[in-house]
Fold this sequence. Notes:
The chain is of the alpha/beta class. The protein has helices at about 1-5, 10-15, 15-20, 55-70, 90-100, 115-140, 150-160, 165-190, 195-220, 220-235, 255-260, 310-320, 340-350, 385-395, 410-425, and strands at about 45-50, 50-55, 235-240, 245-250, 280-285, 290-295, 325-330, 360, 400, 445.
Amino acid sequence: MSGHLWQLPYSSLLFNRTKLYQGLYALPRMKIYSLCSSKQIQTTTYEVVNGSYLETSLVKQENKTKDTTPAPVALDTVGAFQKLPMVMPSVDIYYSALRKARRVSPTKGIANAAKREKNKGAKQLDALMKELTLPLKTYKEKFPNKRHLHPYERSLIELTLGDGNYEEVLGKVDSLRKKLVSVGKEHASLCAQSSTKREAEERLAEGIKRLEEIFHSDGKAVDELMQIAKSLRAMPVVDLEMPTLCLVGAPNVGKSSLVRILSTGKPEICNYPFTTRGILMGHITLSYQHFQVTDTPGILRRRDEDRNNLEKLTLAVLAHLPTAVLFVHDLTGECGTSPSDQFLIYQEIKERFSSHLWIDVVSKCDLLQESPVFYITEDADADHSELLKYRTMGPDGALRVSVKSQVGINELKSRVHELLVSQSARLNIEKPEATTDASSPRKIFI
């Protein structure tokens, strides 16, 4: 019988020791392990992961590794400008916060007048501070970080608002928030430490006055942010997955007139440089296909570092958006940029963006003379053969058009359609019926 007992596990012996001590069996040399030694017992638990057993410690370690992996930064945020919060004028924020703070009552059950007053004053100052800082915190969180935007959106912010101005204004708003929090808490604490009712009332008034001074002196940053939001939200939409035609050329060569002919865009048309002061977006529907057309500010002949923000905006469109190019040439001498300068601009842009699909158009062909136009500042004898040919005919394969007489317009529309169909194939745009991805098309607001 004792032989059978020795074959039992120690756990069985442990839990049956009451029987052993009743004298049923004699076990003179048997060791009984106490419960305190259980800390020395190593146990392993398992979890089923993908149909296999894995140690729990390994699963936790794997999950921990996954959790610490930094999330990829999105560089093509969808509709970032459309999602901007509505920014209230600073004066509205202040008086709305003051009205709400005034309605705060003291904690119920305080019989002592001095304690009740200092309780009310501290709560009202705290409420005023929170009501002032809450919208500022929202603005800081909801306005996107430039690093998370599409490269074109980043360029657009810099060129439209000025380099660094966007971050500077957001920084001022956040600094205002921090200052209000610090001063609000300080005065609420002072009010709570008041010894008399009158002292509590004075410290409440003093705290409100101090918060008002800070908000009115630094609140102009909120108004600046409101203007930034209005400017960015007012920009038209560019769908990155829709074929886009970008009209490029020197100022006043007729780009805006062609946009009106080709699309739904209605740009301003005047005879002075830089009529187009931003990017204008129009749309084309041809053979049940939808396309986009952008009118861009004119480019002058000069180095990149000497260009103004309007010219840089045009270059940003070509650099960051997948567009086909319609380059417009004016050889009549009416645009203010000489044909020789236009030729050099054309060569520079064509070389820089050689990967883009391209159409060349000579505008205002009804005004062209038989002899080429020379400016007084130009030396006709210095022209090489390629430039002489350009003065008369434009680039090889250029299409001559006239918006006024409608010459070449139908052919231009046909060529544009062919170009955009080729651009569509290049972008590998799927038909709507074949689209199964739940994600929405990427859009950039300009």
